[in-house]
Amino acid sequence: MIIVMKPDASQNNIQRVIEVLEKKQLKAHLSTGKQLTIIGVVGDKSILSESNLEAMDGVDKLVPITESYKLSNRKFKPEPSVIKVKGFTIGGNSFSVVAGPCSVESREQILETARFLKSLGVSFLRGGTFKPRTSPYAFQGLGQQGLEYLKEAADETGMAIVTEVTSLKTLEIAVDYVDVFQIGARNMHSFELLKEVGKAGKPVVLKRGLSATIDEWLNAAEYIMREGNNQVILCERGIRTFETATRNTLDISAIPVIRSKSHLPVLIDPSHATGVRDYVTPLCKAALAVGSDGIMVEVHPTPSKALSDGAQSLNFEEFQNMLSELKPLADLCGKVMSK
Amino acid sequence: MIIVMKPDASQNNIQRVIEVLEKKQLKAHLSTGKQLTIIGVVGDKSILSESNLEAMDGVDKLVPITESYKLSNRKFKPEPSVIKVKGFTIGGNSFSVVAGPCSVESREQILETARFLKSLGVSFLRGGTFKPRTSPYAFQGLGQQGLEYLKEAADETGMAIVTEVTSLKTLEIAVDYVDVFQIGARNMHSFELLKEVGKAGKPVVLKRGLSATIDEWLNAAEYIMREGNNQVILCERGIRTFETATRNTLDISAIPVIRSKSHLPVLIDPSHATGVRDYVTPLCKAALAVGSDGIMVEVHPTPSKALSDGAQSLNFEEFQNMLSELKPLADLCGKVMSK
Amino acid sequence: MIIVMKPDASQNNIQRVIEVLEKKQLKAHLSTGKQLTIIGVVGDKSILSESNLEAMDGVDKLVPITESYKLSNRKFKPEPSVIKVKGFTIGGNSFSVVAGPCSVESREQILETARFLKSLGVSFLRGGTFKPRTSPYAFQGLGQQGLEYLKEAADETGMAIVTEVTSLKTLEIAVDYVDVFQIGARNMHSFELLKEVGKAGKPVVLKRGLSATIDEWLNAAEYIMREGNNQVILCERGIRTFETATRNTLDISAIPVIRSKSHLPVLIDPSHATGVRDYVTPLCKAALAVGSDGIMVEVHPTPSKALSDGAQSLNFEEFQNMLSELKPLADLCGKVMSK
Amino acid sequence: MIIVMKPDASQNNIQRVIEVLEKKQLKAHLSTGKQLTIIGVVGDKSILSESNLEAMDGVDKLVPITESYKLSNRKFKPEPSVIKVKGFTIGGNSFSVVAGPCSVESREQILETARFLKSLGVSFLRGGTFKPRTSPYAFQGLGQQGLEYLKEAADETGMAIVTEVTSLKTLEIAVDYVDVFQIGARNMHSFELLKEVGKAGKPVVLKRGLSATIDEWLNAAEYIMREGNNQVILCERGIRTFETATRNTLDISAIPVIRSKSHLPVLIDPSHATGVRDYVTPLCKAALAVGSDGIMVEVHPTPSKALSDGAQSLNFEEFQNMLSELKPLADLCGKVMSK
Q: With bands split at pLDDT 50, 70 and 90, how would you rate the model's confidence at D50?
């Protein structure tokens, strides 16, 4: 960390800052320029978290140099993490496909979808039963009943279930049903939920917040991992920008950035990123080419009858075509699809 | 709502959409242009929430014309809402000052602050005890112990307590202590928490999400109000942009926008919006001039020793000077400060 | 276009709007709902450009339904445009590689680079000689001297030159040297420059503005095309967001969006989008997979000695490796690289 | 400036960086931590502009500590600048009102407006004659004819003319007519235009770019000032965000930020910032309260007949009422309005 002093900071101000650092056993390196003085801090700065250097007299600003996350940081674990779920793999040379409807709507719908996906070799079944919706007047999901249906579909097909939990209460209900928890974009900052999902000990897909920086995202992963759960799978699902042609802006550069900063696997969700069915296939191909560990895609037997997000869901035929396009690309990239 | 059909939509596609509308007792008005057809939908479109028009063949997009929120909508309640807490008023011709430290740190700190604020006529005491922090290694608040201290300060001074709840669990703990719940920016989208805080029946300060649109913000208010709780106070605290000179960008235009769209009172929090102490006073003056219903400001006996957000906290002298500057402005604007 | 009337608009207000429309030979379709009236406008609304419906009494807002650009619009020319330069092709089944240093720095530098690129089969040589730099104290380019060097390199190798013009004056100087003009992100809104470059009659690479919407970008293309020049090549180079891990955020979804809205070819520039050398290769692969028509990449003999943007430039070896990785991908995608 | 080395940088890498610095007579201060080494650079770093430290082996990133702009920097000229135009003042204790139509549309329109404004004591008349419009099919301004009308209005009333120039060509035409040049948001990055307007020697209103940071804005001012022209007036006109309720988001915090970083006066343009007439008056009041040096507001005799931006223009009565509301506020804030 660098402490930048104000141009008019007194020797006394500087001395005080150094005293605070030294009391914490940190070393201070002074660089005194014509305009101002900067102080380099050497040592474990996490012990500074309860100090408040930024508010001390004469201090202009703090410039962090190293990241505050540790367990998710590639510096401390250079080899990529590989996560196993029900015998299926996420990370390494796998390219994982997580697919299913936005919402579980009925027993028939989810069973039909699961059977179809299984027939194509897809291992991860997604489907929401607790739906966070902007308007309270929109469809809110089937709740526990939906989990029962998901479970039945998974039991029959052997697929692994990925589903979203939105609060401590829904986490408690879902824990008996799901194989992989999903934390949605709207809850990436719900730190207590992150801690609890960390304690639950099952793999977690952690979506990036609506406008979270990559740094904040990895700090959110840290909340989960600190509870002893290292099975975190990141998922880029678009960030909020001024562009309105797509629902969000897929930040594809986040994949190489995450690769350089973290060892965690990272998926791409083009359905939520764009909100437009026609853009899903080209973005899935880009996801593979850029080096992501997989995709999360919405599939629905009859998108025009979906209770939520039908406009971004592929129908069965479109999904099958998409997989066919991905297969040779995966071979070329040395990735094994799905299982 | 307007349904815009694709240029190549068939007569059959259009007919199907009209059938769906008519089955729901809605009227469809066709406008057929050279390039494309648009369909105006007349009637209560909330009954369409489980349809999925956007995914029907031939449909290009839906353009909403009216807002999806109702209880918070000024169209349905033109007169501004006024909220009473412990005899103090928010809304109407009041300009309310909510002040206190970012975090409750000790019994002495909060008592000293409360006494000082009370001596200046401030009625609302803020202080966090459950702190949502980006990094899990940062100070996380005193929890229930902090609530005890807040309560003691409120009992002694007669002030009303405003404090943040971050989950169903902390809501349950806090309900016996607080006068006004605060939902922080990071939880504006935590819809289950919104519902629960709606049921708790106490006034709620609802901060705008980090990158929430005003429309989403009013929909979040709707989640609370639908549970029978109309005592919602909005609070603009800055949105995320590319600018880095301030922590966030205070969207001051949100105040007149909210005025035209909603009857709910709205505060401004310049401390979180900017993250810089020196910018707080000018922005408080702007908050008054633009017509907001009050401010939420961080005050700390010794900002340089604060455990969180010291850089944006005013010390006692700075806060007192700020109030002195606001007073004549409030008089001029016909606003009564604080109580 | 839809005209949304205010809830309290009078019959008189509505009548007045209809009169304005009918005077222009446009048809008005009324949809009268419980809350408000909307008016669908049918006909060529470009003739409304000098009216000011939005400011008429009782009008709430105008909702555009069709795009204002025409010549660049796919609706009016469904087949993709293919552009020929010196016998080289951009668009169609080509995947074009435009490469070279950020700035032309010396005769040796550009000759060495051109020879190397030519040896790999690259056809388009880029290099800036008029550099728009944020700070006036940064290197501003070699000007006309740089153009001489570029010309020499092109004459020797047979490559086509792509270089940026930044004003009417530099356009006039450059016109005798370049094969393809580049309009940089900072000038996408310089409409007079767009018109002049349209008149110059040479192909134009039009970069997306720092924070331009896709709609604005296509309108900028329209400024060029209206002067009779259809040879416009779009180039996505990242948009401005809150994320700081990359210089900008590459909006990869823009490629399928452009495909659906326009017939113009579109490149991706990952060097400027990220500002980080290590992210260039994965994003070039994504550019190919997503279906773009090519890439624009910075290459420098010795990036650590570049006078501008060295941190994002590939050295020769890195560039060669990148091309080797792209080749099989291009084959798979049915694209012919470079020529 | 701080140079942050990569964790795996070798002693050799570090040595090389130090050599480059020392060759330039700069001092290097090393701070060697467990994870990485940082190098503080002391001295005039502008001489580094042609080096490329960021691309050297082992270098992770450069962290600028001091600003790159100098002439506009408050550190080098602490007292606020006051600019005189035709005997009128901008800056100091003045609160300047710049008003007029978006576009000059006819001789009658601008004369009528000027006479009305003059009667209220307004000194600065704005009106565009070269209009940068997103679509080439929209009204583009009257050009030189409009300047003639403006001049006539100014000659009769004694007001000072503020008008936009959009290119070297329109600058040349306008120079004989205008008192204050305006550089619009879309041209803030047109550096050659900035230089030329710097040479022209007349005061310049420099609007903030659509998505420019404050740092970039002050660097743009630097381009003008380096040509010997210190008469730069900044104007905040809203930045681009995801919010759609207003056309842009007025960044009101920019006022205190500019105050702390620069000595230049700064205006607020609420008409362009919001695009909505009803929001103009509250934001003008906020502009005064926050400490800006004035406002730029659109006024039109009949907004509903304006050829551009009618929806955001005040009519004469609305403008007069707005001034009446501002007057007592200005008195309270110790500001003298308009002249």
A: low
Q: State the chains in contact with B (3 or more Cβ–Cβ pairs under 8 Å).
A: A, C, D
The pLDDT score that the predictor gives to residue A277 is 93
Sort out which chain B residues have CB atoms less than 8 A from D286's CB and list them: 252, 286-287, 289-290
Assign D51 a pLDDT band (cuts: 50, 70, 90): low
Give the C-alpha separation, A7 to D320, whole Å. 45
Q: pTM to 2 decimals?
A: 0.93
**Cβ contact, residue pair B75, C33, below 8 Å:** no
> In this complex, which of C38, C41, C242 lies closest to B241 when CB atoms are compared?
C242
Q: For D65, name the nearest residue in chain A, comparing CA atoms only.
A: A4
A84 touches chain B (CB under 8 A): no
Cβ-contact D108, D94 below 8 angstroms: no
In angstroms, the CA B301 to CA B318 distance is 11
Whether residues C135 and D49 touch (CB distance < 8 A) is answered with yes
Cα angle value D323/D325/D331 (rounded, 5°):
90
Please give, rounded to a whole number of angstroms, the shortest distance from the CA of A166 to a CA of chain B. Answer: 7
Instruction: Note whether C334 contacts A: Cβ–Cβ < 8 A.
Output: no
Give me the residue from A32, A41, A242 closest to D42, CB to CB.
A32
Residues 229-268 of chain A whose Cβ lies under 8 A from any Cβ of chain B: 240
pLDDT tens per residue across span D287-312: 999 999 999 999 999 988 887 777 88
Distances (CA, A) of C280 to C186, C208, C309: 22, 18, 13
Q: Which of D42, D75, D242 sits opposite A31 (nearest CB)?
A: D42
Low-confidence ranges of chain C (pLDDT < 50): 339
Q: Do domains B2-63 and B83-337 have the same CATH topology?
A: no
What CA–CA distance (Å, rounded) separates B271 from B267? 12
Look at the domain B83-337 and name its fold: TIM Barrel (3.20.20)
Tell whether B167 is within 8 A of chain A (Cβ): yes
pLDDT tens digits for chain B (339 residues)? 788 888 889 999 999 988 888 888 888 888 887 777 888 887 666 666 556 788 888 888 888 777 889 999 998 899 999 999 999 999 999 999 999 999 999 999 999 999 999 999 999 999 999 988 888 888 888 999 999 999 999 999 999 999 999 999 999 999 999 999 999 999 999 999 999 999 999 999 999 999 999 999 999 999 999 999 999 999 999 999 999 999 999 999 999 999 999 999 999 999 999 999 999 999 999 999 999 999 999 999 998 888 777 788 999 999 999 999 999 999 999 999 964
Name the residue ranges covered by the structural domains of chain C: 2-63, 83-337
B285: chain D residues, CB-CB within 8 Å: 289-291
Rounded to 5 degrees, φ, ψ at A168 are -60, -35
Tally of CB atoms within 10 A around B170: 21
Residue among A44, A65, A211 whose CB faces D38 most closely: A65
In this prediction, residues D34-52 reach a mean pLDDT of 71
CATH code 3.30.70.1140 for A2-63: yes
pLDDT of residue B52: 75
